[in-house]
From TrEMBL, chains A, B, C, D:
Keywords assigned by UniProt, alphabetized: DNA-binding
Residues in the DNA-binding region annotation: 27-46
PROSITE patterns, alphabetized: HTH_TETR_2
The protein's name: TetR family transcriptional regulator
Biological source species: Dyadobacter chenhuakuii
Domain of life: Bacteria
Residue ranges of every copy of the HTH tetR-type domain listed in the record: 4-64
Length: 214, 214, 214, 214
DNA sequence: CATGAATGAGAATTCATTCAT
DNA sequence: AATGAATGAATTCTCATTCAT
């Protein structure tokens, strides 16, 4: 599905508003107004508000992909390096699309998911977990990673930590006395901190070195 | 503020629906209907839908507390044991009040927070992080924990992982082939898995043993 | 009909609020709250909101009266003196019960009058016009007043002027630079001005002196 | 602001109902029903019930004006003739827009005025009083009018009398045995009577002839 | 292809009154 | 005799969508 300029404009405004106020909390009028289009355009272009959010998912899902897969097939990298690439890639994806991932988080909190959207989310999560699995199994095969790693919970920790960090970034600022930091600078700062934190976390946990299991 | 039986009944229904469909996505009619009360009772008892969710927060915040603090002042426990207690306590609290913590998560995703609620959340998060800080500093003082621990991100990982695990539990079921497990049993299973995972994660990360920083 | 203390308290609060915000614009809750009584007291004591305003009319109508009639039967007074007494008496009555007369004015503006209230108002107006008629006829009989006086319009001017002056007193203050005058003082000032104005108006108009009709 | 046919239709129905039953006493449903439009049209066109009455004021205020000003700048007229024109003009305006002036009277009786409307009323009253002032000062300059004329109270008498006459016209009919007179004829009759009455009143009061002040 | 006008359903809240005690 | 609890009707307004052009 290809979208024209006006449609993309609407989708992007909708994305921001859905992230800010939730799907139900955002009216098509809000969207139309901020996107400088007529209210009836939303129904006209997308059919309904429901279909609009589906279009948003369709668009955003079509984007990402690929780039990383090539990186990870590089045979020169040792397992922990690949994990680190995975971590940075996740941070980049989530922090670079905060609005969209905010919406995705909300959707996962809901019991009222649209089948289409649920499917999108499931696909994405599947892809994420399979990638993780591949890397971990590689590491295990090379004897670099320990055996009993809870794959789904490691993934949960990865995405849970990033998502939660994004959701609570204002609190993080306050706690760490960064209220006055320029926004762009803060985003960079948070990415770096998250990167260090998660890499350290994963390294200690998945590698075989001196680890004594409880 | 004390609430009578009917008020509590309303609050509990509201809690479930807000968790399921979000605040804006839940109408007072929905709540009234499921709680088997007249629609106007919500305004009558709480003043407004807004005040109702505030009452929910007031009630739930008034509960928790204390129990744990005594546990952690026990001097017989070594640092990592206290951390483990903290982890189990967090899992218990979040998994035992999934609806409420779902709502809290939603609130944190929103830019449109009510001041009262924001304050509640801030208080709660402050309490959590301070407890973590106390335990970690204790462990560091005893030489059991390593020095450079990112306090706020460790907390983020703790709560982020649990929240995300709860939000994606259906996916977890499917991935791990647990679709047929009895619900109660699954909850227990998930708690135990989370407990093991987080304890292992924290142990590897915070303890001093052979850790080589990157 | 006799009213007990609490009933009178309610009536008086209602009078003030009806004057301020109109009958429909005032809720029984407003009244109950300001009168420090339970909401259900209004229905309990008066039967309904409608009946409450009827009770107000009944009470206020029962008051006034008499005092003036004796004054005007005094045979030592010349016609214009009696007219002046009538004017001052009207000013006193209207300005001393601004709330009630505000309500009465509102009722006259309405097409939705309760029969009871309409009847009260008619009675009152009848009494007023008959008194005016008596005085004017006396003056005419004595040759002091001119013949062709429009009785009902003279009465209209008397009450219309006072009512309008009361309704627009804030504007009067501003126009005459009296914003800073103490309220009580202003009331006295306005009464005196109105008195002078109306007496002068009536004297010029009703007396026979050199009047040349158009 | 220009209003389309349907909007004007709504405004006119609203005007009549607000005059009949007051602002608070009139529901948007009443208006919609009588105007044969959908209830939501009122919000759609005007934003709110509040804004609707503001639109009414805006429309009615935009009308009147000017016509009279030219009349009064005619130098051939002697002062008392100009006063008479002013009187007739006031009668025409108020009696020709009874509904609107009824609403304006109600607004003046209220403490809960919308700023916009208060401003309109203030403007109108200011214009009225300034016109009166101009005429009276002209008359005084020519020696035709006496010196100590209470400007604001003369204006009060003018508008107070007309307003009160309109408000009590049913009573007037009854008193003067005009119940059976055709409505249009009665309106003409009342205008003529008011005109005579007020002209006579003003002439006696403001002209210098033989007036002896008390 | 695009849009302004229009709408009916549903939103939250307030209302005067009633009822059980 | 008095009152707190409760209620259903009615309030204004917003909503997503449709329709005629």
């Amino acid at each position: 599905m290809e979208y024209n300029t006006k449609q993309i404009q609407i989708i992007e405004v909708a994305e921001r508003l859905f992230a800010d106020k939730g799907f139900a909390g955002t009216s098509v009028r809000d969207i139309a107004q901020e996107a400088n289009v007529n209210v009836s355009m939303i129904s006209y272009y997308f059919g309904s508000k429901e279909k609009l959010i589906e279009a948003l998912f369709a668009m955003r899902m079509g984007e990402s992909r690929s780039r990383m897969e090539t990186l990870l097939s590089n045979e020169d990298l040792i397992p922990i390096q690949k994990i680190n690439i995975l971590i940075d890639s996740a941070i980049d994806r989530l922090m670079g699309n905060q609005c969209f991932h905010n919406i995705m988080m909300r959707e996962q909190l809901s019991s009222e998911r649209t089948p289409t959207i649920s499917e999108h989310i499931r696909t994405l999560k599947m892809r994420n977990i399979q990638l993780m699995q591949k890397l971990i199994e590689e590491g295990q095969a090379q004897g670099a990673f320990r055996k009993n790693i809870d794959l789904s919970l490691m993934t949960t920790t990865l995405y849970g930590t990033i998502n939660y960090a994004i959701a609570t970034q204002e609190f993080y600022k306050r706690i760490n006395g960064l209220e006055d930091m320029e926004e762009a600078e803060f985003q960079t700062h948070l990415r770096r901190k998250l990167s260090q934190h998660l890499k350290s976390l994963f390294k200690s946990t998945v590698t075989n070195e001196h680890h004594n299991q409880d």
